[in-house]
Sequence to fold (187 residues):
Amino acid sequence: MRATYHDMDWIRMKSGDLAAFERLYRAHVQPMMRYGLKITDDPALVQDCIQDLFEEIWNTRQQLSDTPYPKFYLLRALRNKLSKALSKQSFVSNGEMSLASGDQPVEYVELEIVARETETQNRETLRNLLDGLPRRQQEAIHLRFYDNIPYENIAEMMDMNYQSVLNLVQRALKALRKGFSVKAPRQ
Fold:
């Protein structure tokens, strides 16, 4: 596996390079925040856990092992930290998936308006369908399709075997396709 820029920052951070640590933080804080909000609706708790995690990483950097995938390590560590914090609060709630917007370029104003309305309806339908999935399916979908994490890492992260993760994602996709075909607006 070829080392990436962030892999090198991880190694430099372990050696005490504060600039590398800051680059890691800046590169991963937003994906961590989005992922944390899938686990809990409490943004303050997610921010606190992220800050605590990075503080722990800096303080124990010399004991950390090398990782070929810092994002995976950080998301898993955040998940563990949030799980502990939530178990202390004795509640877990579903977060709302935030979908990135991306308009299709259209030449004609009327077509653009129709396209935007259709896209908005489709996104709302997808958001509602995602919110209707069980929490574990939401988490697996988010990790796979929003964070682009390989199935092997998702299995490790969610403490599941590889085949179970594949099955979980397939059930979620099947439910989304079924729900979307019923609820999607017709042209």
Summary: The mean pLDDT is 80. Residues 174 and 180 are 10 Å apart (CA to CA). The helical segments are 5-14, 18-39, 43-59, 70-89, 109-132, 135-146, 151-157, 162-183. The first helix runs from residue 5 to 14.
